[in-house]
TrEMBL record:
It comes from the Bacteria. It is a multi-pass membrane protein. Gene3D superfamilies: MFS general substrate transporter like domains. PROSITE patterns: MFS. This is Major facilitator superfamily protein. It holds the Pfam family MFS_1. Residues 13-400 form the Major facilitator superfamily (MFS) profile domain. Its main location: membrane. PANTHER family: MULTIDRUG RESISTANCE PROTEIN MDTG.
């Protein structure tokens, strides 16, 4: 305890924000996999209507997030990151708790819309720590901060599944609210920020974010790739618990099984991300990116033929390995090809496109599942992966480069 009290403030901030990231990851993931099952208890919806509402409920959060995030970013430049952290944590405390009290699907969707508009805890946690940590320790510290979010995403679905199976689907939302209340208090009392606002006449704020980028097609390809990766990965979210229910023939603890299946990509990503990052340093990020896309396609396609929850979980594990190769590598490539003065703005574009992908994927999946069947969602995601691969190959050919250098 004495070591913590004597630690520099940035380290105290990191510990506090690690818990905030853990609470956000765990809270969201312990409730979202069971959202379709929760909606199904609100009325006797036909299959097409249930999948449609589930898709809207998933997507609307990311839609409002994509629209509002740039506005919060500008406000953060004037007020600092801590007010943004408190705003996000307090808002999620309220919206998550009220979601558990939703009397019908339309109130639920409205609350999810509001939650997305006021979210952004994890992004602001990264920004605050990155602005304060000594440069020579930034890699290790940012990696430590990441384990909070990923660890929460791993444990959340399993705990949420067990609780939902015993006490009902509303309880995980109440737990989400309780987690975010703790995050709010820890952020309020445990985080101290020495904020210096950006000058209003800073020329970097008026210059185009894409000015000075030589491989412009590659950077745009990475932004589009981030969107398509999110669309493919999140497409299963609205139907995962419904598909597991079908595979289990409506027998057993469906919520717990859904939670385990939902957690598998996170487990794989946590185990494989450091090694794949090191591999990218040695053979070049382009090869890792293309390999990840190929693995992703090979993992999604067999899901169409899946007949057991075990096989679905195994294939989802391989999707997690592919994700560990894809998202970090797209960011690495953008960093390599973007001037330092434009990196923050390019990454903000990237985050917006990721949010758009999280809207497109679930909505497409809901339409496909409602018209055809749950299994056809996996063929749709395979098609998205193929499009992604073609976009990446076209961009490198257009810019006439082969990116095999280490970062």
């Amino acid at each position: 305890m004495s070591q913590l009290s004597n630690a520099p403030q940035w380290k105290k901030n990191m510990y506090a924000l690690w818990f905030g990231n853990f609470a956000t990851g765990a809270g969201a993931s312990m409730s979202l996999p069971f959202l379709p099952l929760f909606i199904s208890t609100m009325d006797n919806f036909p299959k097409w209507e249930l999948t449609l509402y589930a898709g809207i409920a998933f997507s609307v959060t990311f839609l409002s997030q994509a629209i509002v995030s740039p506005l919060w970013g500008k406000l953060a430049d004037r007020t600092g990151r801590k007010p943004m952290l408190l705003r996000a944590a307090a808002a999620m405390t309220i919206t998550a708790t009220l979601t558990g009290l939703s009397p019908n699907v339309w109130v639920l969707i409205l609350l999810r819309l509001i939650q997305g508009a006021f979210s952004g805890y994890i992004n602001n946690a990264y920004a605050l720590v990155a602005s304060e940590v000594p440069q020579e320790q930034s890699g290790r510290v940012m990696g430590t901060l990441t384990t909070g979010n990923v660890g929460g995403q791993l444990i959340g679905p399993i705990i949420g599944g067990a609780i939902a199976g015993i006490f009902g689907y509303r309880i995980p939302f109440f737990l989400f609210g309780a987690f975010m209340l703790l995050a709010t208090l820890i952020t309020l009392f445990g985080v101290k920020e020495n904020f210096v606002p950006l000058p209003k006449d800073d020329h970097h704020q008026t210059e185009s974010a894409f000015a000075g980028i030589k491989q412009i097609h590659v950077v745009w390809a990475m932004i589009i790739s981030s969107m398509l990766i999110q669309a493919a990965t999140n497409s299963i979210n609205p139907i995962i618990s419904l598909f597991v229910k079908e595979l289990m023939h409506n027998q057993g603890n469906i919520a717990f099984a859904s939670g385990v299946v939902a957690a598998m990509p996170g487990i794989a990503t946590l185990l494989s991300a450091p090694r794949l990052g090191s591999l990218g340093d040695h053979i070049g990020p382009q090869k890792v990116l293309i390999g990840g896309l190929l693995l992703s396609g090979l993992a999604f396609t067999p899901m169409f033929f899946t007949t057991t929850v075990l096989m679905l979980g195994i294939l989802r594990f391989f999707v997690g390995i592919a994700d560990a190769a894809l998202l970090p590598v797209t960011q690495t490539v953008m960093t390599l090809d973007t001037p330092t003065s434009a990196i923050s703005r390019i990454f903000s574009y990237n985050q917006s496109f990721q949010a758009i992908g999280s809207v497109i994927g679930p909505m497409l999946a809901s339409g496909v599942a409602g018209i055809l069947d749950y299994r056809y969602v996996f063929l749709m995601t395979t098609l998205l992966v193929i499009i992604n691969l073609l976009v990446v190959l076209w961009a490198y050919r257009k810019d006439g480069i082969k990116l095999t250098r280490a970062k």
